[in-house]
Amino acid sequence: FKFKTSELALPVVYYGLSSGKIMQTLTGKAGKNHDLNITGLLPGTSYSFLVAAFDSKSNFLGSLANTSPWLDIATLGKKVDDPVWPVISNLAVDTTKNEKAIIKFTTDSVTRGALIYTKDPIPGYANEVLGGAKLTKNHLLELLVKPATTYWGEICLLTKEGYRLCDNKIFSFTTSSSE
To answer: 45 and 17 in contact (C-beta within 8 Å)?
Structure first.
C-alpha cells in the first residue's frame, strides 16, 4: 500500500480474512509518504484491509477508503488449504531482571516467535522483538525495558511455511522501579 498524508502520520494496516476481524497489524514509520508491504498472504484468498493513519498523539486521521473503511482484495493463485495456526500457551513475563523483561511461551508446533510491543496503548505498534532464528515450541524473548513502566504487547508467530500470525490477545506488564 502506497499513500500520502498531508501531515506527519503513523500508517497502520489492519487486515484479516473478513472485515471487522483483524488477524494482523502492520505499522510503518512516521512520515508523509507511506509504503507498507504485506507478506505471507495465502494465494487465491480474499482479505479485508483497513489502511489508517494516526498523528503523534494517537488521534485517528482517516483511512484510504472513501465509502467503507474496509477494502476487499483477493490474492492471485490457486487457493491452498487454510493453514492450521499454532496455539500459544503458558505465556509468562518475568520483570525481575534489571532493565530486561523475559517473555516465555509455548506453541503446539514449531514456529519462530516475535513480540510486538509499545509503551502507549495505541492502535498499531512501533517496536518488535524477534526470537532466535531457530524454529521451536519453547519461546524465550528478551526485551530491554525501563523501570516503573507499563508495556503492552502481542505475540506473533512465523511458521515454517512462511506465514505470520499475530494472536490479537494484547497483554500488559509493568516493570518494577529501580530502587
So the answer is: yes
Q: Spell out the per-residue pLDDT of the chain, length 179, in tens.
A: 788 888 888 888 877 776 555 667 777 888 889 888 887 777 777 777 778 888 777 777 776 554 456 677 777 766 656 567 788 999 999 987 778 889 999 999 998 888 878 776 655 545 667 676 789 999 998 888 888 888 888 888 888 777 777 776 778 888 887 65
As separate numbers, helices (DSSP H) first and strands (DSSP E) second, the chain gives 0, 13
Distance, CA of 170 to CA of 49 (rounded, Å): 20
Q: What are phi and psi of 86, to 5 degrees?
A: -65, 150
Which residues make beta-bridge pairs with 34? 3
Assess contact for 52 and 14: CB atoms under 8 A: yes
In order of 127, 145, 152, 157, 168, the CA distances from 99 in angstroms are 16, 5, 16, 25, 26
pTM of the model: 0.56
Of the CA atoms within 13 Å of residue 92, those in its CB half-sphere come to 8
In the 8-state DSSP scheme, what is residue 83? P
Do residues 56 and 30 lie in contact, with contact meaning Cβ atoms separated by under 8 Å? yes
Nearest Cα neighbor of 176 from 100, 120, 121, 95 is 95
